[in-house]
């Protein structure tokens, strides 16, 4: 019986698409345009139907050519095609207003073939015959989990052959039919969606909030047709197939959520945006699922008369992007009612006005910045919606960005608004100065009672005398830390205490008793004195260097110091400038160049260094600025020198909660004991959220904050898992090594993971200056080494036992432990040789293999196969002195042959001035044409081609593989012709590809 990914996930998923109204399209006898894999007949019929016009075949062929032209470029990441797909045109490609009017089909294993390479998604989604998406469906517990698909996608997106296809794709799904592993930072199981964004492609969870009813029935004739077309009829009557066909499997529920017809069109129409960022260049983003459900709730509540509401989405969840998505949805919502919309984004700081303006303009909106009462009065009275700067005659949505920071509380703005225009106000960070009485906002609410007011916050105000919802009536949607952390959008935050020796030093400096507290007003005075600042800064400097260099080993990490006063901030900055190698910037309201300092600290990506983040600054020193709205993912350590209250505390803590590389937490070094304030604030939020939390959803909702006690609890769990082994780990590692011998590879990997967690907890406690003397870290490290060796042994055995194992794995496997094991159990007289002699010889062979610079060569692969057979014979026969002696002789001969091959390669490389890529090309040409050409002739051919190609590339601003390919045809043909050998066109192209594989790094 078949029991693979096809039978378990792919075929049931294909059949489930039928439940959603998709048709199944066989590839047999289908007319497909290979440039974009458009199904020609379906396309032509669909275009006629959705446009209600009988176009000629010639016109429709031109339309297919237009799509091919729009997608065949390496510069715009598919933006031209996307705008053609969703923009206004006299001939539409999809019906955005009536999703069910489109033709939806799925195809199994459709090949997308470029000039040289190809790929086949499991399920391709056609809309009106155009491939606009696909699903990769993998079996549960597949090797490397969903990461295997992410790696495969990375290669596809780097392959120039595939650019036209990914310029055309909009919605992609990946599933291995398993629940999410929310406790892990690395996505290995579950179902994820994305849109192609090349090297910046991200993979998003989708957690359903509005169940879509699905009819479970499937026609038996249809099932038979699909099974027969995929040649998999044998699975039909099996109980496994019946189970996997249910609509509520993890894979099928994801397909329902993301690929239902209405949602598919919604995501294309409203959920995709091109972002032209000054820092990251042109990017293609897709809406996050909480943003989607926030919009759905907003529309539903507006249908019921909502005028004011709050979107409570945690920091880092993309509230500015959400405002952009909402503006497009509401524009069309009111357009159906023949009402014009005008959008305002209200902030209360100049830096946030600049930041918001950049965010909206990078998404293609025009910006009207309003920074005074008079400007606002004129704007709100004006009936003008779109400035005259619309791009190329196309409608461009305008966002009026309003800074009310300088609007006094008693300001009265005379707002006689135009009643024919629906004004929609996004109020950013409504946990701050928006109060019901005596403010600009109150005047606005009174002057424009018809307006729609959407508050945005991650931390609503929940005071006894005032709550955010007192002003905004109701929550539109909530997305709290627990879900954001589970979805990977934000990190947990770990609070670390300061070292005891520093506490004692401070008590002596300030002359205070144990347990005595300093009033906040006195704290501000004494903590800016030089004697305190010196001690504090020395401590922070040493602490951060240990954190960055010893624990995380990442020079790109940064820190922030939140001072207790502006004077203290200046004193700290002066100390770092004078005494420290760490570079810091002072960001205060009255300092110059604050914007430049913020951008410098955020860092810039160096494309030549693999997009590594670079910054001249290690840290920033602040008082009140940057505690909200400042987004710098590299900021991972926060030194808190003053008490911050209520929602402002959570805002401040969130500065370090952005995901960055492989960091597990954001870190807060707590000088003022924020625990009580945090717990009280979080308690209020939990009460406010309680109505939305179901039992299984809220189990870990208090886990945003990780403190020392939680780490200690985790160590207890770990020690319990290791209980049966800890005696030997601490007392006898040889006995521990014997104890783990019966474990299989999976059990060993699990133990290795637990030991890694133990080491991480040790580091966390050490950074919190806790006593770690009772943790036997050296013994834990040695146990980790023993387990790693045992895993290497198991992997080596698995590779040797599998006749189909990739021979390239052989030289990457450490056979040391395997050889030691074999020699231990055999009857070998080690007088003629020692264990180390054999290991040394094997290591010499591995090093010689690694030194070879043509590892695709048949001769090299043959030597690797010999090595595999020798190691296997050592395992099978290496139990007597004579047999080991024979194996040693074989190893000597193998080493000699590898060294000879390497010497030949190096000699040929020297003829090409040390460029080993030309050595490899030389050998491949000789192999293909050895009957007609010798080494001297090939060298002369190569020299001429190299000269022509270097000259061509040297005169091109941005050489691409495609351009070089076409330009080199004639020079290659001529170079061979001079040696009396004429190549066919196919042979010319094959030779050019040999060079392009090197120039464009295609192995």
Characterization of the model:
The chain is α/β, with parallel strands linked by helices and 1003 residues long. Helix content is 48%, strand content 13%. The strands form 7 sheets. Strands 1-4-7-8-9-10-11 form a 7-stranded mixed beta sheet. The protein folds into 6 domains: 266 residues, no CATH class; 190 residues, 3-Layer(aba) Sandwich (Rossmann fold); 215 residues, 3-Layer(aba) Sandwich (Rossmann fold); 83 residues; 110 residues; 83 residues. About 2% of the residues have low confidence. The longest helix is centred in the C-terminal third of the chain and has 31 residues. Pfam families: HSDR_N, SWI2_SNF2, T1R_D3-like.
Would you kindly provide a brief summary of this structure?
Its EC number is 3.1.21.3. With 1003 residues, the protein is an alpha/beta fold.
Q: Provide the gyration radius in Å.
A: 33 Å
Number of domains: 6
Global shape:
globular
How is the largest sheet built, in terms of strand order? 1-4-7-8-9-10-11
Give the termini separation. 37 Å
Mean pLDDT: 84
Strand content: 5-15%
* Total count of strands: 29
Number of helices: 38
Low-confidence stretches are 388-394, 693-701, 827-832
Q: Give the % helix.
A: 40-55%
């Amino acid at each position: 019986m078949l029991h693979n990914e096809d039978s378990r996930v792919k075929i049931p998923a294909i059949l489930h698409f039928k439940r959603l109204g998709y048709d199944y399209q066989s590839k047999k006898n289908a007319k497909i345009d290979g440039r974009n894999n458009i199904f020609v007949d379906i396309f032509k019929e669909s275009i006629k139907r959705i446009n209600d016009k009988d176009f000629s075949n010639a016109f429709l062929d031109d339309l297919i050519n237009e799509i091919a032209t729009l997608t065949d470029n390496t510069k715009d990441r598919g933006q031209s095609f996307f705008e053609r797909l969703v923009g206004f045109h006299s001939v539409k490609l999809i019906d955005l207003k009536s999703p069910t009017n489109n033709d939806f089909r799925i195809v199994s294993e459709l090949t997308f073939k470029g000039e040289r390479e190809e790929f086949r998604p499991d399920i391709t989604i056609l809309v009106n015959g155009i491939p606009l998406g696909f699903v990769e469906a993998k079996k549960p517990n597949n090797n490397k989990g969903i990461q295997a698909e992410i790696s495969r996608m990375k290669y596809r997106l780097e392959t120039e052959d595939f650019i036209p296809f990914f310029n055309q794709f909009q919605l992609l799904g990946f599933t291995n039919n398993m629940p999410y592993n929310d406790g892990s930072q690395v996505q290995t199981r579950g179902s994820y969606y994305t849109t192609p964004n090349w090297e910046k492609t991200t993979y998003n969870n989708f957690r359903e909030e509005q169940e879509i009813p699905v009819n479970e029935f499937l026609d038996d004739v249809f099932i038979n047709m699909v099974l027969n077309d995929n040649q998999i009829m044998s699975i039909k009557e099996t109980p496994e197939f019946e189970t996997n066909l249910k609509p509520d499997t993890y894979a099928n529920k994801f397909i329902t959520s993301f690929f239902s017809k209405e949602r598919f069109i919604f995501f294309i129409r409203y959920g995709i945006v091109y972002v032209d960022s000054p820092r990251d260049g042109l990017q293609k983003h897709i809406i996050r699922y909480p943003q989607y459900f926030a919009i759905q709730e907003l529309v539903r509540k507006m249908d019921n008369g909502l005028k004011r509401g709050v979107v409570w989405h945690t920091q880092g969840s993309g509230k500015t992007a959400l405002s952009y998505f909402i503006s497009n949805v509401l524009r069309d919502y009111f357009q159906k009612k023949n009402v014009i919309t005008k959008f305002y984004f209200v902030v209360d700081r100049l830096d946030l006005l600049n930041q918001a303006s950049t965010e909206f303009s990078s998404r293609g909106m025009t910006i009207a910045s309003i920074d005074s009462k008079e400007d606002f009065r004129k704007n709100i009275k004006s009936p003008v919606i779109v400035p005259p700067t619309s791009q190329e005659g196309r409608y461009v949505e305008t966002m009026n960005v309003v800074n009310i920071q300088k609007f006094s509380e008693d300001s009265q703005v005379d707002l006689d608004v135009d009643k024919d225009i629906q004004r929609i106000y996004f109020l950013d960070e409504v946990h701050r100065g928006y109060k019901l009485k005596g403010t600009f906002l109150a005047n606005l609410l009174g002057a424009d009672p018809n307006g729609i007011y959407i508050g945005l916050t991650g931390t609503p105000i929940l005071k006894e005398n005032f709550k955010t919802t007192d002003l905004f009536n109701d929550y539109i949607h909530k997305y709290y830390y627990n879900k954001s952390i589970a979805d990977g959008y934000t990190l947990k935050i770990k609070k670390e205490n300061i070292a005891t020796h520093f506490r004692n030093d401070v008590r002596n400096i300030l002359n205070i008793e144990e347990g005595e507290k300093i009033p906040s007003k006195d704290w501000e005075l004494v903590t800016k004195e030089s004697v305190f600042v010196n001690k504090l800064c020395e401590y922070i400097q040493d602490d951060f260097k240990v954190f960055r260099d010893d624990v995380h080993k990442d020079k790109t990490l940064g820190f922030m110091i939140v001072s207790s006063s502006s004077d203290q901030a200046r004193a700290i900055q002066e100390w770092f400038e004078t005494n420290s190698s760490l570079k810091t910037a002072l960001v205060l309201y009255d300092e110059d160049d604050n914007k430049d300092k913020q951008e410098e600290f955020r860092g810039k990506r160096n494309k030549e260094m693999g997009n590594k983040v670079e910054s001249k600054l290690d840290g920033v020193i602040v008082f009140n600025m940057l505690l909200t709205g400042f987004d710098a993912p590299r900021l991972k350590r926060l030194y808190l020198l003053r008490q911050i209250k209520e929602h402002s505390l959570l805002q401040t803590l969130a500065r370090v909660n952005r995901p960055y590389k492989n960091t597990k937490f954001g870190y807060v070094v707590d000088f003022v004991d924020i625990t009580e304030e945090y717990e009280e604030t979080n308690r209020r939020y939990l009460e406010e959220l309680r109505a939305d939390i179901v039992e299984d959803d809220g189990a870990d909702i208090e886990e945003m904050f990780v403190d020392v006690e939680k780490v200690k609890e985790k160590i207890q769990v770990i020690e319990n898992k290791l209980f049966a082994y800890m005696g030997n780990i601490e007392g006898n590692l040889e006995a521990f090594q014997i104890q783990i011998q019966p474990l299989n590879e999976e059990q060993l990997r699990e133990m290795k993971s637990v030991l890694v967690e133990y080491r991480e907890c040790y580091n966390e406690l050490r950074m919190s200056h806790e006593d770690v003397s009772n943790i036997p870290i050296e013994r834990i490290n040695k146990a980790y080494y023993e387990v790693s060796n045992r895993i290497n042994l198991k992997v080596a055995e698995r590779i040797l036992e599998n006749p189909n194992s990739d021979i390239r794995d052989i030289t990457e496997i450490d056979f040391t432990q395997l050889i030691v094991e074999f020699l231990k159990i055999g009857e070998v007289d080690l007088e003629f040789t020692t264990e180390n002699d054999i290991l040394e010889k094997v290591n010499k062979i591995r090093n010689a293999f690694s030194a070879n610079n043509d590892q695709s060569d048949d001769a090299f692969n043959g030597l690797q196969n010999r090595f595999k057979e020798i190691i296997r014979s050592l395992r099978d026969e290496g139990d007597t002195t004579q047999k080991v002696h024979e194996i040693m002789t074989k190893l000597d001969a193998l080493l000699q042959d590898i060294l000879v091959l390497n010497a030949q390669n190096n000699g040929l490389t020297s003829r090409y001035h040390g460029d080993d890529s030309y050595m490899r090309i030389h050998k491949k040409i000789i192999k293909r044409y050895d009957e007609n050409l010798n080494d001297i002739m090939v060298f002369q051919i190569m020299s001429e081609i190299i000269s022509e190609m270097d000259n061509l590339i040297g005169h091109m601003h941005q050489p691409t593989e495609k351009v070089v390919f076409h330009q080199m045809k004639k020079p290659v043909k001529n170079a061979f012709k001079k040696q009396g050998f004429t190549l066919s066109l196919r042979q010319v192209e094959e030779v050019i590809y040999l060079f392009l594989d090197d120039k464009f790094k295609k192995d």
